[in-house]
Amino acid sequence: MSGPRFKIPSINTLLAFEAVARLGSVGRAAEERSTSQSAISRHLSNLEDALGVMLFERSGRGIALNRSGEKYFLAVQSAMGSLQDTAHGLHSRKTGLTIGCTLEISGLLLLPIFSRLKRSLGDGVAARIVVYDFDILSMLIPVGLDIIFESSVGAPHPNENAIKVLDEEIVPVASPSFLERFGPVLAGPPQCWSGVPRLDIGLRSPGWATWDTWFDEHGCAPPDAPVETFENYIHLLRAAADGDGIAIGWNGFLTDYTEAGQLAAVRDEWLRTGFSMYGVPTPNGRRNPASKDCLRELGRLIGELCSRRPVTK
Q1: Which position has the higher pLDDT, 66 or 88?
Q2: CA 252 remoteness from chain centre
Q3: Model pTM?
Q4: Distances (CA, A) of 115 to 22, 126, 225
Q5: Which domains does the chain possess?
Q6: CA-CA distances (angstroms) from residue 120 to 113, 214, 277, 288, 294?
Q7: Residue 27: how many CB atoms within 10 A of its CB?
Q8: Closest CA to 233 of 217, 261, 257
Q9: More confident site: 309 or 198
C-alpha cells in the first residue's frame, strides 16, 4: 500500500508556527493559542527538524523569521486562508444532498421528476445524482451518499427511516408497430405467444420480476420464441420502442416512452409482485437535515409517476 499523499506537519504545529511568525513572540503566541511557551517552542523545533532548515533567527531580543521562514510563512498563511475561506463558503452555500442509484433508476425514474424534486426541496438544497453499480455500492456509501434505493419483499424495510417509493407492478409493453404485427397473437392467452420475440434483461437487482414471473402467474412456462438479452433496462426499452420485441414494463419506469406514444401496454392486466422499492437514508443521510424532506418528496413524486399507468392502444 502507498503512503499518505500529503506529508505535512500537524495542524497544531502549523498554527503554532503561524502565530509566532505573525506575532514575533513565543510568549504572545502561547497566550493566543491557550497553551504553554514550552509547547510552542517544541512545535517550532519539531517543524524545523522535519523540514531540515531553520525558520527563525533567535536572539536575546526575541525571535524573527529568516528568509526560509518568510517563504514558509507565506505558504502556510495562504493555505490557512484558503481553508478558512472555503469553510465560510460552505457554511453560506446550499446544503448538499447526494442520491445514489443505478443507471436505470437515474435515467427512467428520477430524471423525469428531478426538476420538480429540486424545486420542492428549495433553493437551500443542492441535490445531485450519483450512478453506481451494485458491486461498488459498499465503497461509495462512506464517502458521501445520503440516499440509496433498496428492495424488500413482502415486509416493510427494516430501516424505520426508509420511505417506500413504489410497489413493483409489471405488464408486457411493445411499440405500436410491433403491436400491429403481433396483435392477433398477443390478444390470446400468454401460453399461445409462441414465436413472439421477447426482450430480456441479463443483469438485474435481485428480486425484480422476470418473464418467468409473468408466465408463472398465467400458469405456463415461457413459450418458444426468439429472445434478445440486454445488460441494462434503458437499452432494452430503446429496443422495444424500435419494434424489436415485447418487454416487461415496470410501472414508474415507462412514463417518458408511453406518454410519447413509443410504447403501450400489451394488455390492461398489471401484475403486482409483492416486491417493493424504498428510498433509504445512509448513515451520512441520517445526519443530513435535507434527507428527510427529500425522501418524502421522492415518495410523492414517484407515486405520481406510477399512477400514470400506460394502457393498451
Answers
A1: 66
A2: 19
A3: 0.66
A4: 50, 12, 41
A5: 11-92 (1.10.10.10), 95-161+276-307 (3.40.190.10), 167-275 (3.40.190.10)
A6: 11, 37, 21, 17, 8
A7: 13
A8: 257
A9: 198
